[in-house]
Amino acid sequence: MMPGVRKDVPQQVQSWLDTQLFEHVPSNIVVIDRNYRVVLANQQFRQVFGEAAGKLCHQVYKRRDTICDQCLAARTFTDGQVHISDEEGIDRKGRAAHYVVYTAPVRAPGGEISHVIEMSYDVTETKALQRSYNILFERAPCYVAVINRDLRIVRANERLRETFGDHVGEHCYRVYKQRRQRCPDCPALKTFSDGRPYQAEQEGRDKNGEPTHYVVYTSPLSRGGASFSHVIEMSADITELKRLEQENLENERLAAVGQTVAQLAHGIKNILNGLQGGMYIIRSGMRSGSTTRIDRGWSMLERNVERITVLVKGFLGFSKGRTPSARLMDPNAMALEVVELYRGSAAGQGVTLRFTPCEGLEPAAMDFESIHTCLANLISNAIDACQASENPSCTVTLDVAEQQGAIIYRVQDTGCGMDYEIKRKVFTTFFTTKGMGGTGLGLLVTRKIVQEHGGRIEVESEPGQGSTFRLIFPRHRLPQLPEGSGDRYEVTDGAR
Amino acid sequence: MHCKRILLVDDEPDAIEFLLDLLEDNGYSVITANTAMEGLEQIRAQRPDLVCLDVLMPEESGISLYQKLRTDPVLHRIPVLISSGLSFNRELRLTDYLTLPDGSTIPEPDGVVEKPVDIRQFLATVRRLLP
User: Fold this and answer.
1) Of A295, A322, A429, B77, which is most buried with the most CB atoms under 10 A?
2) Is B11 in contact with A280 (Cβ distance < 8 A)?
């Protein structure tokens, strides 16, 4: 009886085990002698590799003429131990096949190893599957990394290694960002803490120290069970996108400068026209000896000199402070402050001023003074539009909202509205429709400030119906907070 | 001799005062309007021989008034001189003001004079339009 076989095994099973096991076991088994010649091969082996008895094992397995470099049987002959290895062979039809091979010693009665028994089973399909997974992992057109709880990268794909260097085993924050400490708001740590997927936009440094932008998605890596020991990170490189976005912002700024120059020219041309008129009237008064006319011309000159003085002062104000000095602000408090500022004058002009804040709005990085100026300009324009309207009970409304990651200020009036041409020109030309009462700078300044905050302005208006201006600030385009000011949060309370 | 009547439409009092003096000194009869709406009323009531029109005005622009004139079966023959601080070649053309919302087009204005007004050029244009 074979050792390890239970005594209550039925006779016919025992008999099969004794006589048929070797021949019919569903694995390839051969016995080879010290010359590496096959002395015995079972049925499955013969089916896969053909008749083998008497042939050299490396000829049978791999169609080699010489012994394999890392011969497993040779190791067992040497040390008498069981060895396991992955091997690639060629079957009798000439196809490449992958095997896991076990070798064990066969000892003669004296104890010396006379033969080695080799058992192998086919893992070709498993290998093919593994290779597909590997290709998928390696060739994925994004960065893929597997990270352990210590935040060390245990596996990184080709693209990640190419961009950030081959640093498997190192901390992810060191590889991605050349940092010495964990990153704040690390999405992998969040996934480790609650097992949920996270995403975050990050800026790293590639192996050459160049800035790299990417969006990282993290997910727990488990084998179906509840517990997991690793997190998989997939990151899409958005460096080019970021560069284009930056370039776009720059272009918008440059375009704004170009438009500003044209608009300034237009403003000055109107004043020059007034100066020209004043000169004409004085000269013609002098020719005709009319002091009344000379006085009229003189007044016109004075008025237009005054206009150009106001314009230049306004323009200096416009050009100063080009870089927004951002601090964390409560967008509602800022709007309320402007509303309070205008409540009195609106009431004095018979205009109802309404304010609707946005509940639960997170603070935002903005330049308080600048945004205050924008909202004040819009509210003041809206009140003027009400004054110019025939509607006796006009309303100006300021709403704050957040939609799709953007803070939106909406200033709506039921005043005189604008026609198509004025609407088109309202931001592209340095002009005023308020005659001597305006410099034409208000909306220009507003647009400039909004653009500096990465935002945009939208306007809707119908003559006689009123106008709606929207200042839209996507949070991800807002200015960066200055270094070290991340935790400061400016409270505005109207007493400013 | 019947003197030609010119309507000045401009929201800037100084621009009105200047051109009013200049035109009256040169023998024209001048009427004025401070808004496009008032301008249209004056045109209907007074039938001027020439309309001198500013572009950017509150509520309704000079362009809108120009489009109304050119599409009016009665008033479309009145010559129009546009006088604006906008540059004619660059800014005014960009607005595509000769194309109406329904896609149809209207003719160019009879004259264009940029502000600040060059007196000689302005008078020469007026004389050309009112021979």
Assistant:
1) A429
2) no
A423 to chain B, any CB pair closer than 8 A? The answer is no
State the best of B56, B96, B113 to mutate against chain A, taking most chain A CBs within 10 Å. Answer: B56
Kindly report the pTM of this predicted structure: 0.48
The C-alpha atoms of residue A114 and residue A108 are separated, in whole angstroms, by 6
To the nearest whole Å, the CA of A273 is away from the closest chain B CA by 4
- In terms of Cβ atoms closer than 10 Å to its own Cβ (0-12, 13-18, 19+), residue A139 is exposed
Closest CA to A169 of A188, A154, A181: A154
Can you say how many angstroms the Cα of residue A88 is from the centroid of all Cα atoms in its chain?
44
- Amino acid in position A446: T
β-strand partners of A120: A28, A101
- Residue A414: CB atoms within 10 Å: 21
Q: What percent of chain A has a predicted confidence (pLDDT) above 70?
A: 86
Complex ipTM: 0.89
Q: How many CA atoms lie within 13 A of A213 on its CB side?
A: 10
Any CB–CB contact under 8 A between A16 and chain B?
no
Which run of H or E residues covers position A396? strand A395-403
**What distance separates the 2 farthest-apart alpha carbons in chain B?**
43
Helix/strand/coil (H, E, C) string of A472-490? Answer: EEEHHHCCCCCCCCCCCEC
CA dihedral A310, A315, A316, A320 (to 10 degrees): 140
Question: How many beta-carbon pairs under 8 angstroms link A with B?
Answer: 109
Instruction: State pLDDT tens for residues A398-414.
Output: 999 999 889 999 999 98
Cα separation of A393 and A398, whole Å? Answer: 17
Contacts of A417 in chain B (CB under 8 A): 59
Peptide bond into B116 cis (omega under 30): yes
Sorted by sequence, the CB contacts under 8 Å of residue A224 that are 6+ apart come out as none
Element (H, E) at A122: strand A113-122
Residue A283 forms contact with B (CB below 8 Å): no
CA distances from A400 to A30, A339, A359, A374 (A): 81, 12, 9, 14
| C-alpha to C-alpha distances, B75 to A39, A312, A482, B50, B110, nearest whole angstrom | 117, 42, 62, 11, 14
- Cβ proximity of A366 and A324 under 8 Å: yes
